[in-house]
Write a structure and sequence with these properties.
Cathepsin D, subunit A, domain 1, Rossmann fold, Dna Ligase, domain 1, 4 domains, five-stranded antiparallel beta sheet
């Protein structure tokens, strides 16, 4: 916040236009009331969050009286909580924030209490504490300072100039692993509140008017964003929880449909094929009578037999001969397991490329090599990783694969074949440790930059209930 060192004399009428730039409110009318000590801002959905030593408050502001459909999300540090008595004699405990007020090129810090002023003609009350010594009040006049316009809330510049605000973010994770810890550390370092939520302890209230997510006996608060880290063993339940957050209107880094599609290898490959994205020849069948033709469809042995919901290289078998392939397929069918058969890209030599996609960009890549004697390159199976420079075609393939599955964050695994890059797998919950270590990039920071861009405050139109009030 800034203070003008040599203020010019200002004259205020009983109503004036002003702006609160730190809150993303470029134009608001305020009633000047020297009989009131503190200033008040009309706010709804007021909710505190953050740690006890640095508490913050988030709230919604309707800057235009009579326009309930236009909502500006705001947040600010809490500097006090005090009892305020209104003009009708009612006492109310209110959060107090400090922000910058700007009028006619001059700006200075003011304290504001947050309260619901719904139904009142003015959505902001300017008390005497906010009035500087050089301000003269002309009680019989109004709009002695330059008039602003509500049109600014409908402009592109409004979104671009919106101030950064602290976000409340949930990480859906059951594990205290490297990736989860990095998300918490990086988020808090950027001023956000990050809460780790055990997905399996969430339960949901499904109804049309008030969809909710509950956790440990309480309704979860509104989050600005959710980062799903859904384990393979709880894919369906985890996706249902994410879907509930989507129903509420929360921005989810990866949506439920993308998570489900990426976990089901058959579904994922069908989506990739529909988008004409290169991948190893793949076949799937249910009847044991189809085994011979199934093997021929992918080009005969050697081939890969893979469980549909395999992760970290588990449930993936290399059959080097036709007889071995028939035996593995027979064993999987005996277990009533769903699997697919895939061409083995021999020229990849047990190596693949992990491309990490955030938003629409490949932000990092690494080459993974299998342990001695192991065709799988997964780091969890003892593989190793090294730096790699990817080609333009590989970069575009990874981007297209993540987009096809509707994922804002994805680990796309590519094989380098004689016919160009082939997508082996798309992971909706990629780990950060290996790729941050190898690439030297702060992946968590890059993810938060995308979240801040997507969850940035901007005018929200809920529903049209009344005509816009005229500027004057």
């Amino acid at each position: 916040m800034t203070t003008t060192p040599s203020p010019q004399q200002l004259q205020f009428g009983w109503e004036e236009w002003l702006s609160l730039p730190d809150l993303g409110l470029p134009a608001i009318k305020a009633k000047v009331d020297t009989g009131a000590r503190t200033s008040a801002l009309h706010a709804t959905d007021i909710e505190s969050f953050g740690s006890s030593d640095a508490p913050q408050v988030r709230f919604m502001v309707h800057p235009i009286p009579g326009r309930e459909d236009l909502v500006i999300p705001c947040s600010a540090p809490i500097i006090d909580r005090r009892e305020v008595t209104s003009s009708n004699g009612e006492a109310e405990m209110r959060f107090v924030i400090a922000t910058t007020m700007a009028v006619n090129g001059q700006s200075w810090p003011v304290e504001l209490t947050l309260t619901d002023r719904r139904g009142m003609a003015s959505h902001m009350l300017l008390g005497r504490q906010a009035l500087l010594d050089h301000i003269t009040i002309m009680a019989t006049d109004r709009f002695l300072q330059p008039q602003l316009s509500y049109d600014v809330y409908h402009s592109k510049a409004m979104r671009e100039a919106a101030p950064k605000r602290a976000l409340r973010i949930a990480v859906l994770s059951r594990e205290n692993n490297y990736s989860t810890r990095r998300l918490v550390e990086e988020g808090e370092a950027r001023g956000h509140t990050v809460e780790v939520i055990d997905t399996t302890r969430c339960y949901i209230a499904i109804n049309a008017l008030m969809p909710e997510v509950h956790y440990d006996g309480k309704r979860l608060p509104r989050y600005d964003a959710v980062i799903p880290r859904i384990g393979a063993s709880i894919t369906q339940y985890g996706a249902a929880v994410v879907r509930q957050f989507e129903t509420i209107g929360t921005f989810c880094v990866n949506g439920s449909s993308g998570i489900i599609a990426s976990r089901d290898k058959l579904h994922a490959h069908q989506v990739l094929a529909r988008h004409k994205i290169g991948m190893p020849a793949t076949a799937f069948a249910s009847s044991p009578k189809d085994t011979g033709n199934l093997i021929q469809l992918v080009g005969n042995a050697p081939l890969i037999v893979k469980l549909l919901e395999s992760t970290q290289g588990k449930g993936v078998v290399l059959a080097e001969t036709r007889k071995a392939a028939e035996s593995v397929i027979s064993a999987f069918r005996g277990l009533k397991a769903n699997f697919l058969v895939q061409h083995f890209v021999k020229e990849a030599a047990g190596e693949d490329i992990r491309c990490l996609v955030i938003g629409s960009k490949v932000v990092a890549a690494m080459k993974r090599s299998g342990a001695d004697g192991d065709f799988r390159s997964n780091l969890h199976q003892g593989g190793s990783a090294s730096k790699v420079r990817i080609s333009k075609e590989e970069r575009e393939t990874a981007q297209r694969a993540a987009k096809a599955l509707g994922l804002n964050m994805a680990g796309v695994d590519l094989l380098r074949s004689e016919n160009g890059p082939k997508v082996l797998e798309v992971n909706s919950s990629p780990g950060f440790e290996g790729i941050e270590t190898i690439s030297g990039k702060n992946i968590a920071e890059l993810l938060y930059q995308e979240i801040e861009r997507r969850a940035r405050p901007a005018p929200v139109r809920r529903r049209r209930t009344a005509k816009s009030e005229s500027d004057s």
